[in-house]
Amino acid sequence: QVQLVESGGGLAQPGGSLRLSCAASGSRFVLNTMGWYRQAPGKQRDKVASITSDGHTLYDDSTQGRFTISRDNTKSTVYLQMNSLKPEDTAVYYCYRVDVDGTSHYTYWGQGTQVTVSS
Fold first, then answer.
1. Sheet holding 18-25, edge to edge
2. C-alpha–C-alpha distance, residues 104 and 119, integer Å
3. Distant-in-sequence, close-in-space partners of 40: CB < 8 Å, separation ≥ 6
4. Any bridge partners for residue 26, and if so which?
5. In angstroms, what CA-CA distances link 33 with 57, 79, 85?
6. Alpha carbons within 13 A on the beta-carbon side of 76
7. Are 98 and 76 in contact (CB under 8 A)?
8. 88 DSSP assignment
9. E strands within 1-119?
10. Of 24, 20, 38, 9, which is closest to residue 74 (Cα–Cα)?
11. Residue 94: exposed, middle, or buried by beta-carbon count in 10 A (0-12, 13-18, 19+)?
């Protein structure tokens, strides 16, 4: 069973920075995508950023230029460096992983980590 363990959330001031980490274990698939979604109170879960196993990245327009996603395949870990944080970035951030096995896709989620941006 694949497990995703997130860390690094917390409280930051507007304009500040936080770095989220998500370590995956139990997967045997090399071809995969990892990334982050976030969900603010009363809102739907929205995609933040993703990165494939060969390093291709995608960002939501709201985070482009402020957030940077990266990964260390030797540690099966994905990171989200969040700079220039805004109050509207406040949300629970969920790590996810999609393993690809031919035409089959398997999606796994972390438990979520709270990010609060407030002065």
1. 3-7, 18-25, 77-82, 67-72
2. 45
3. 88, 90, 91, 92
4. none
5. 9, 13, 25
6. 18
7. no
8. G
9. 3-7, 10-12, 18-25, 32-39, 45-52, 57-59, 67-72, 77-82, 91-101, 104-109, 113-117
10. 24
11. buried
Q: Is the pLDDT of residue 5 over 90?
A: yes
For β-strands 113-117 and 10-12, DSSP reports them as parallel
Q: For position 93, what pLDDT does the model report?
A: 98
**Residue the block writes with tokens 């739907």:** 44
Residue 3 pairs in a beta bridge with 25
Name the percent of the chain lying above pLDDT 70.
Answer: 100
* Each residue's pLDDT tens digit, 41-91: 999 999 999 999 999 999 999 998 999 999 999 999 999 999 999 999 999
Copy the structure tokens of residue 40.
Answer: 């603010």
Residue with tokens 């896709």: 105
Helix, coil or strand: residue 79: strand
Q: Which two tokens stand for residue 102?
A: 């031919």
